[in-house]
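Complex record, two chains
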Amino acid sequence: MASRDEAPKLSSSVKLVLLGEAAVGKSSLVLRFVNDDFQENKEPTIGAAFLTQKCALPSRTIKFEIWDTAGQERFASLAPMYYRNAQTALVVYDITKPTSLTKAKHWVSELQRQASPGIVIALVGNKLDLAATTASDGGDADGGDGGDGGDAGSRAVLTAEAKAYADEEGLLFYETSAKTGENVQSVFEAIANAIPENTLKPRGGAGGFAGSGRGGGAGGAGGSGGEGRVGTAVNLEDGVGAKDGCAC
Amino acid sequence: MFSSLLQKATAFITDVPPASPTSPTSSRPTKTTLFRNHFRLPDSQAPLQEITCELTLPSGDHYAGKLYLSESFLCLSPNPPSSSSTASATAGIGFTLPLCAIRRVERLHSRSYMFALAITTWHGVATSAPPPGGKEERVTLQFVGMRSSCEAFCDRLKRGLRSQMGEVKSLRILVDSCYSEYLLGNSGGYDGVKRSTDGVGADDGRKKDKDPPDAGLGMIFKYPGDTRKLRDRSKMRLWAEYLRGIPLRNLQALSTNGRNVTLVRQPTFHKLIRVGLPNRLRGEIWELSSGSMYLRLFNPTMYRDILHEYDGRHSHSIEEIEKDLNRSLPEYRGFQDDEGISRLRRVLGAYSWRNEEVGYCQAMNIVTAALLIYMSEEQAFFLLSALCDRLVPGYYSKTMYGTLLDQRVFESLVEKTMPILWEHLVKSDVQLSVVSLPWFLSLYINSMPLVFAFRVLDVFFLEGPKVLFQVGLAILRINGEELLDATDDGAFISVLKSYFSRLDESAHPRSENDKLRAVTRFQELMVVAFKEFAGITQNTVIEQRNKHKDAVLSSIESFAKRTQLRNLGPDSKRLTPEELGCTYDRYFGVLYERQGRLQMIADEMEKLATKKRAAAGSGVGGNGGERGRVGLGPTTGVTGMDYDCFREFLTGIAKWAVADSVLSAPAEPAQPEQPGFFGSYGGTAAASQWKNLLNPWGAGNPEPADHEFMKRMFRRWDTDMKNQLSLGNVVSGLASVVGGKRDIMGNINYWFELYDDDGDGKVDREGILRITEALLFVTRRGDIGRSESESDEAEWGDERILSAVSGFTRMCFEYADPDRPEEEGDVKEAGKDEDEDDLLELIASSSDEDPLNTPETVSPGERSPTTPVPKDNAKANLALDPSNPLHITLPTFRMVILADEVLERFFERGFAESFRLIPGSEPQATLANPRLMARMPTTPLTPGNAKGLRGVLDGIVDEGMRVAAEVRRRMEEMDDNREEEGEEGEAADAKSIREGDRDLLKGAEADIQEGQGQADELHVEKGGGNKGEGRSRSVSYGDQASSGVVEFES
């Protein structure tokens, strides 16, 4: 089934949902993660799109079942349908739009109250490439570079501000660029690592699902807890064959 | 004589009664609605006449059916418009003829007992010479019915034709923009046939050189799909044949089925649509079968007018549209081009202005882009209107309730038709709607390859929303086996995705039979959808929608409530979650109920004013007909509470906001206190009496007071200066008056700021008087703040408040700073002349007391009983002289408040406690009717509530009397009372006496009540005998004491 020849690892599927204001780049983040691709004019997501991608950790393989939701405000009432049973969520905002962070905060509190208990939430500031319009290098994701630029297309949300909020709420925090790919893998890896072992279930038998690696029982106590965010590789190469993107 | 009676009787029977006022949430469509939907007519149309008749076409075909006449249309359908008919009339035989498209109506006298009309339409005009075959180019309608009803119908028709003459100009414009006109007018081979241009007075040659009318972006950028594979040419030929009629031998045949507006639907029409429309006719037929053509006909300039009017204007919707313009069908060349993009921008923008309730919803961009491939901007605009308003109502609304509702309907249909698959879905925890929602929302355009999606649209516009369900069910049925193997969302989705990508492949690739092998998967899908699921009718859909509607709306509402309350911001934290919840319910309850009520009243007024509606004019009404629930989304213009709405809102949370006039109204439980506020609307409204319908505050609701204080509060809360309060404004506003940590200083500041109009830290004379008025207004029902230590209510009698307030006024003037001190001398005299009103006297009279002693002297008993009016008190005169401006500052204001125990208590607790956010937590507070209020047992904790004397004060404000004058009157009365009672003269006793008197006066009444039981006896006894016993006695009787109060009040 799986094209991997390594020693059989535990494999679990994890439901991940993306939430955030319209046009902050949710779909683009997923497209980057799943296809390592970027499209300038991406059709807006209607309802939600479903994609999968695997992420290999030393101890196990996580298969992300990604629900990429529509961002427009009025679609918000559909969201519970998608974050139902989600083990993890990516709440995305646009670092050039302060209102999108406000919206992201709303989503965080919605998830904290309504989603499955113990959901792992990552706050992601996207469009980091646009932050580079100020003198500071877009590379460093920490240290608010003070680019509180008023003009469109430059940073308007300070890293420190968002970080402080994320810390307060106990969220993972990253700034990414779906356009350049910066930090995109790291986000998903960090999430994969942050999911508590005991919430992982073995993959159900999904018939007719190409390239899905089946794992054993979930009981394995394969202490990945300590590994933290050390550079775990995402098996992008393998994943390409296995992905099931669907834009319907 | 008999015949005229008969005529009347039949006229009565045949005359369709006008649509009765329907409850906004009534689920069953009215006859008028059914009629409109059946013939896809604009909202202005209602059936006026109907008659059974037989239609004979020029081709010789006969059809029996029912003929309907509305203001602007003559329609024929073989089956009556009912919710149980399988599809709209446009899917069946018949016609929908705008009256302005009728050129001539002749009465045929062929046989004496027959009643028949020959109708010549716009396109059916015989040209210079009648065709050699002698065939009349007209349709014949032979009426079946009593002569009188035939006459009545004709009479009405005659009037209708006359009134619609003016629309001919619009008709001409419309007809010229139709591709069919170009097609038939321009096609070679029938040169002998003159086009029906005599009315236009143009020569025939002109048309042929004319450019074809705009049939969408496809004319520039090519239509999607391979035209050969689509067999576009043969389809076009078939259509030309249908429209023109099969050419007769003499080649002189004229149009037999009409075209565009005059088209007659025969069975072939339906078949031609099922096989897929030819590219260039597609837009026109969509328009025709959806009825949007009639909207366009009657609103010939609307689209351009909107574009012109809103040119350059910005809105949230416009912003959202801009975001999506580059990502709408980006694979189609026309939308990689500026031409396509700007057309899309204009159509979406115009619609968002036309219907701001909907504005713009993602998916509309995709649907509109698809429309624009086949039709002009204007056509797309009206088709989009018909789509959003009628075909898929609520799909794109702010709450998307239509989408969610149809998903529930779809799920229940799957459960019904494919129970095994449904069970599997439930077992594997796959949520169907995650797959099917985009199908419905984008009308399959986003899910299937475009060419196939358009085929679905062809049928959808003709037959209505049931098509979406039929196709969806067919997709699941065809893929049933594979889906049964899929055990999670992902697998489920991938099965369907691969199915959609192979729709053009053979459905039976391994079949021996060539014909069978040639059947594509898409053709198979259509067959399954319309044959196997033929049982899914419009009626099924309507029934299912009604069944699930409440549940869906409730879940939307609870989500909206949760989200909104959570996102209200820091101010909301000062209210408890329960208070917030109740505020939310009350806010939207009032907002939406009021909206529905006003709409109904407006409708009734309009009905009364003009019995006849203006002609077809306002077709694009956008009025979904359903209002009054949060789940249905906001209504145009209702973005917040205006002042009147705010008043109504306040009645539910503060009893001082209830107008005093309700004292005389019959006791009736107030509606807002009922639980399930949102749900209650439909039922109560339907059951309401006629006159209640016209009550602007709603039947049974308390009438709100209107006081300057409320206006100020409204302005204060309206921080966005929009003259409307959002939920956030209201919550912040409430938080500032009742919110947790308010202290007395905060409240004093709050009141001061309320009256410090220019924010300069000064409140002038007028302001002081207004504060006085407001204090009396707010406390007139006895909310002055409870005292924990003093349970003796006599301490908090009304007199206490009165004297406290008058003391307040007096001290304010006493300590006021003059604005222009240098003029002091001049005005000393001025005070004495003409403007010496009651107020002046009062203040003057009070001011001879030592102001510093006021806290001790507020109790009337201790106060010097007879206060002469020393006219020569210069200080007071100065204070009251309008020509001598003065003001108080916040510190003065504070001092004055704190100097009085009663006022202090009011500002410390009383004011905040006068708001009761949670209904039922304090019955007296929420029962709006003071009569009822007074009947509630008076608990020892709230001794001062609803006391008798208060009633005398009621109405001061509404009457607009000078408040101080009233205060003075009170004082005098008290003096009188004291005189009666002698030295001991406690205020409470004064009240008791009055109560006693009143009860004595009502002795007869009391006697009658005696038979009713022990309680009444007690009541009488008390009334007669409590003269010397004071208030404590009456309190101990609880209910009875209150009854006494009621009588006193009235």
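Note: Confidence is low (pLDDT under 50) at residues 1-5, 135-151, 204-248 of chain A.
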